Amino acid sequence: MSRASDHIIIGCWIAFVIYWFISALKVKAVAEKQSLPSALRHRLLVGFGWWLLAFPRLPPPLSSPLTPRNDLTQTIGSALCVAGILVTIWARRTLAGNWSSDVTFKQGHELMRNGPYRFVRHPIYSGLLLMVVGTAMNIGQVRGWLGLVLVLLGFWVKLRQEETLLLRHFPEAYPAYRKEVKALVPFIL
């Protein structure tokens, strides 16, 4: 299964990058954008996490086995990665022109509560975290699980920044939405 799971996971990440570049061409104009120092708070964490996941030839202890790498973990990892890419694309299509890689408020910004936004407030991050968990399971090394922790921390910082912005622009609707819908994991977190 090793080669097949590797190909499935790499294919998911390639599909993600291609879809994101193409869909980034159709976004609304920015009304308000975060500062570079604010952006660096989450980008450094996420970037280092991606780096750990992407580069297989790292020295010990980063390359040391942490979890089993067998047919079961690779099958589950591949399935999680596929599920994650489906969630991210669904969320990105739902968000449409409101999306940005930075913490921004768009001109004519809408508060999304349909599609995957009914289940979690940040479904793109949820889907990406599924992809990272699947990738970490497939890798089975310290670097994969450390990458997951860093990406999770980076997304948590970014979602807190986004929520501050949304609370300011949607002072009535966003607090109600936060009470009804969890941030990343339906009914849990």
Question: Would you write up a description of this structure?
Answer:
With 189 residues, this protein is mainly alpha-helical. The chain has a single domain (2-180), classed as Four Helix Bundle (Hemerythrin (Met), subunit A) (Up-down Bundle), CATH 1.20.120.1630. 63% of the residues lie in helices and 4% in strands. It has a two-stranded antiparallel sheet. Helix 1 packs parallel to helix 3 (71-95), helix 1 (2-23) runs antiparallel to helix 4 (123-139) and helix 3 packs antiparallel against helix 4. The chain starts with a helix and ends in a 9-residue tail after the last helix.
The helix fraction, in percent, is: 55-70%
> What is the top-level CATH class?
Mainly Alpha
- Pick out the low-confidence regions: none
Q: Main beta sheet, described? A: 2 strands, antiparallel
Q: What is the level-2 CATH architecture name? A: Up-down Bundle
Give me the number of helical elements.
Answer: 6
* Sequence of strands across the biggest β-sheet: 1-2
Q: How many structural domains can be distinguished in the coordinates?
A: 1
> How many β strands by DSSP?
2
Shape: globular
**What percentage of amino acids are in beta strands?**
under 5%
Q: Averaged pLDDT, please?
A: 95
- Please report the distance between the alpha carbons of the first and last residues: 33 Å
Q: What name does CATH use for the topology?
A: Four Helix Bundle (Hemerythrin (Met), subunit A)
